[in-house]
Design a protein that fits this description.
The complex is a heterodimer of chains A (144) and B (145). Chain A has 144 residues and is mostly helical. In chain A, 69% of the residues lie in helices and 0% in strands. Chain B has one domain. Classes of the chains: A mainly alpha (144), B mainly alpha (145).
């Protein structure tokens, strides 16, 4: 399933992600890592869950408002439901032990030149690439 | 006040994710499918976010000794590379490749009202809780039996 190349919207979206990361650091002193923010509202819930819940709520509401306002967000799931369940569980386990994901390591940690984040990002980019190759071209999952 | 601030910052993050294409599993998988229907858009997302954040962090850390709503910046201090970091990150990539969703892409995608998204998010939350409880207990327990 091909998707449209969108360099300008993607760059603009990326800059907004960066602006949010800067604001969260300047105002709250926190890394804008979705793994850490989400983990703090899951059991056992941490004592500072309020700002995390607010951040998550904002992150969910904004795309909904954007759609209501007439914006378009292309969306397609090219894999079966079992891949969502399996992928979800593996992502959850992986980001816990890896202490972060694309936002925490790939953006915030790399921006601080953290050696752990640089190694983590290189590692998951490689295994994601290998997994996509195996899923698409070896197992032919989700390929019409 | 700091709750409203976190809500608004979350909104900027979520909007950025949505319009960038990171909330679209088809686009994310295509970014990695260099051998197939390659879509290089996400390099612009990650590049834009990374360069913006790197510049912004420098300005913030240089201008203010502490954040507005907290006593200090909460920054990870570890620099060692261990098996958990690398193994966990490797595993995360496998899950990202299978589903097309990373945590930062999936949470804002909940706002799009697509039924596949809560399926992924619930599975991911279960994975985090499982890792924090049963799996951590299993790994941390010295092999005594």
């Amino acid at each position: 399933m091909a998707t449209e190349f969108t360099p300008f919207m993607s760059l603009f979206g990326g800059i907004l992600i960066g602006v949010a990361a800067i604001a969260l650091m300047a105002l709250h002193g926190r890394i804008a890592g979705m793994t850490g923010i989400l983990a703090g509202v899951l059991p056992p819930v941490g004592s500072d869950w309020q700002w995390r819940a607010a951040f998550l709520a904002g992150a969910i509401i904004a795309p909904a408002l954007y759609l209501i306002a007439g914006g378009s967000v292309p969306f397609a799931v090219p894999v079966p439901v079992w891949a969502m369940v399996l992928g979800g569980v593996i992502v959850g386990i992986g980001v816990h032990f890896g202490s972060g994901c694309t936002s925490g390591h790939g953006v915030c940690g790399m921006a601080r030149l953290s050696p752990r984040s640089i190694v983590a990002t290189i590692t998951f980019m490689i295994t994601t690439g290998i997994t996509v190759y195996v899923m698409r071209h070896v197992l032919s999952v989700g390929v019409a | 006040m700091h709750i409203v601030s976190a809500l608004l910052i979350g909104a900027v993050f979520g909007l950025g994710i949505a319009i960038s294409g990171m909330a679209n599993p088809a686009k994310v998988i295509n970014f990695f499918d260099v051998a197939g229907t390659w879509d290089p858009s996400l390099i612009f997302v990650m590049g834009g976010a990374l360069v913006t954040t790197a510049i912004g962090y420098r300005i913030v850390f240089g201008a203010r000794a502490q954040p507005l709503f907290a006593k200090s910046y909460s920054l990870p201090t570890r620099t060692d590379l261990d098996v958990r970091l690398i193994g966990g990150s490797a595993l995360f990539g496998v899950g990202w490749g299978i589903s097309g969703f990373c945590p930062g892409g999936a949470i804002p995608a909940l706002g799009l009202g697509q039924p596949a998204v809560p399926v992924f998010v619930i599975a991911m939350a279960a994975g985090i809780v499982l890792a924090r409880t049963a799996l951590s207990a299993m790994i941390d327990k010295p092999a005594s039996a």
